[in-house]
Amino acid sequence: MLKYIYCDEIDLCADTVLATLYAAKKYIVPHLARACVNFLETSLSAKNACVLLSQSCLFEEPDLTQRCWEVIDAQAELALKSEGFCDIDSQTLESILRRETLNAKEIVVFEAALSWAEAECQRQDLPLSIDNKRKVLGKAVYLIRIPTMALDDFANGAAQSGVLTLNETNDIFLWYTAAKKPELQFVSNPRKGLVPQRCHRFQSCAYRSNQWRYRGRCDSIQFAVDKRVFIAGFGLYGSSCGSAEYSAKIELKRQGVVLGQNLSKYFSDGSSNTFPVWFEYPVQIEPDTFYTASVVLDGNELSYFGQEGMTEVQCGKVTFQFQCSSDSTNGTGVQGGQIPELIFYA
Q1: How many angstroms separate the Cα of 3 from the Cα of each of 7, 32, 128?
Q2: Alpha-carbon torsion 211, 212, 216, 217, what sign?
Q3: How many other β-carbons are positioned within 10 Å of the β-carbon of residue 85?
Q4: Quick check: 345 and 229 in contact, CB under 8 A?
Q5: Between β-strands 202-206 and 305-309, what pairing exists: parallel, antiparallel or unpaired?
Q6: How far apart are CA 340 and CA 338, in angstroms?
Q7: Which residues on neighbouring strands pair with residue 312, listed in sequence order?
Q8: Are the C-beta atoms of residues 227 and 346 closer than 8 Å to each other?
Q9: What angle do CA 103, 105, 111 make, to 5 degrees?
Q10: Could you give the angle at which helices 106-123 and 90-98 cross, rounded to 10 degrees?
Q11: Which of 116, 175, 216, 231 is most exposed, with the fewest beta carbons within 10 Å of its own?
């Protein structure tokens, strides 16, 4: 801060930015405080989103708070499994557990709360016992939507964790199985999560009698966005001659570095619809940088392909730009080919 005041130079790094923001707020140096917030926004990821959420509330920075929630909602499972989640205060924990739009399985939320409770016991110098974990969680435990878990997750996880009382465990089992359901203190409505959006880059599709051949070759396209989004998967074409099963290896790269990939199967019904294939976790995409979306398909080679491709597509408040990729070895480009849709959260 003194360097900025005397030399008009701002030199921020991850290790000192929060302390610098605190000092800038305390001594009313608004330009430096804004620079700190901008630095935090650009370095925001699932690994640090929960910690930065806690700090943004402390520093009363609503824009940073909103950015943190965007990351936590879209990449909830990554955020909940991060080391930083265990470092948050109890008030931030409760706000996350209340969140209606968390895009996570409830068993992941439950396991994250237990990890936080273990860390809180250590902070309070309490023995790591089940009773103490329940004690430090307090009423926050009822914000975990245990009745909405898959029955297997509950029976093999939460029910055997020891954190629930025998009466609570019994009542939740009855909630799953009985016609007359008991009253529960736990929230019993599933979280709404996020609704995925789809960016469709072709104006039409077709098929031809001499087939679209795959043979292990890569279909690829480059894209950029003007706002931060989270790519959850691709919408892909299927067979044009009846139902068929496909194997798809999907991948997202930035400057040659793999950010996300998955290998999965999907069924097509013979229609020209697109069929979703998902990454394990949504991938954070920063604005004004080109990323490469790729797929290697294996299946019926008589399939649909896109035509009349667009170089720019407006999806809600997000603008996508497309350009050809040198990774594409199977004919896909801006004007036509595969990878008709990018499925994303924004």
Answers
A1: 5, 11, 45
A2: positive
A3: 26
A4: yes
A5: antiparallel
A6: 6
A7: 321
A8: yes
A9: 115
A10: 170
A11: 216
CB 23 within 8 A of CB 35: no
User: CA-based angle 235:236:242, to the nearest 5?
Assistant: 130
- State in Å, rounded, how far the first CA of the chain is from the last one: 35
Total-model pTM: 0.86
Question: Which residues face 345 on adjacent strands?
Answer: 230
Residues 6+ apart with CB under 8 A from 310: 201, 202, 203, 322, 334
DSSP string covering 134-154: HHHHGGGGGGS-GGGS-HHHH
What is the full per-residue pLDDT of the chain (346 aa) written as tens digits? 888 889 888 888 877 888 888 898 889 998 998 898 888 888 889 999 999 998 888 888 888 999 999 999 999 999 999 999 999 999 999 999 999 999 999 999 999 999 999 999 999 999 999 999 999 999 999 999 999 999 999 999 999 999 999 999 999 999 999 999 999 999 999 999 999 999 999 999 988 766 688 878 999 999 999 999 999 999 999 998 889 999 999 999 999 999 999 999 999 999 999 999 999 999 999 999 999 999 999 988 888 999 999 999 999 999 999 999 999 999 999 999 999 999 999 9
| CA atoms of 65 and 40, how far apart (whole Å) | 11
Q: Dig out the tokens for 331 from the structure.
A: 């004919």
